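Below is how a single chain appears once it has passed through the pipeline. First comes the sequence as given, then the structure the pipeline wrote out for it. We keep one example in the README because the format questions we get most often are answered faster by looking than by reading.
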Amino acid sequence: MVELLSKVVPLSIGAAFSPTLLALLLVILTGKRSIARAGTFVLGVLLVFAGLTFMGLAISHTTHSSPAQKEITRAIDVMAGALLLVLALGTFLRGLLHDPDAPDDSPPKPERNPGLVSAFVLGVVIMLSNFSTILLYLPAMRTISAARIADDEKVLAVAIALLITLSPVIVIYGMAALFPGRSRPVLDALHGFIDRHARTIGIVVEVVFGVYLVIKGLP
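Resulting structure:
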């Protein structure tokens, strides 16, 4: 179990860093009926994570101990890492074409008062297009599925990975819901930080974990 978590936790930490997702949640939390709308946004995010969890676990629910399957596993890791590096390069080049001396690109901002259904759909769409998180979360689930441990330990590992990945969303929403007045300055400061450094955060996460997956997948 400890060996499994040593592989899953780093991937989950990387998947948790999603500037666009967090920025959109913070924007929704500044509008009217913000807690209800942010709640449906988070539900949309959770729905996609449920699908990713099932998909990631199902992918490796095969004869994962065979040499051929191990080679496939390594190839998937290398491919995911390479895609993350490509995403990092694309983000870097977009920044250069925009203005190399300008602040980091701000994530796209929706209207502050989307309807409940619109907020839910936005949560689904933003997660489906959140490729860096997907490319890290799916390998984490595949690693759990391929582990030769008891099913109850796998369930615990999935819960830990999901909790780590969702922790920024849970903390931000929880602060806004439980301490609406006192949390406002903190959330505003966090929003400003993400707006200023979204591109840098994205590139760092994609490069670090892209290299990690490529090295992990090499023989």
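The chain has one domain: 2-217.

See the next section for the split statistics.
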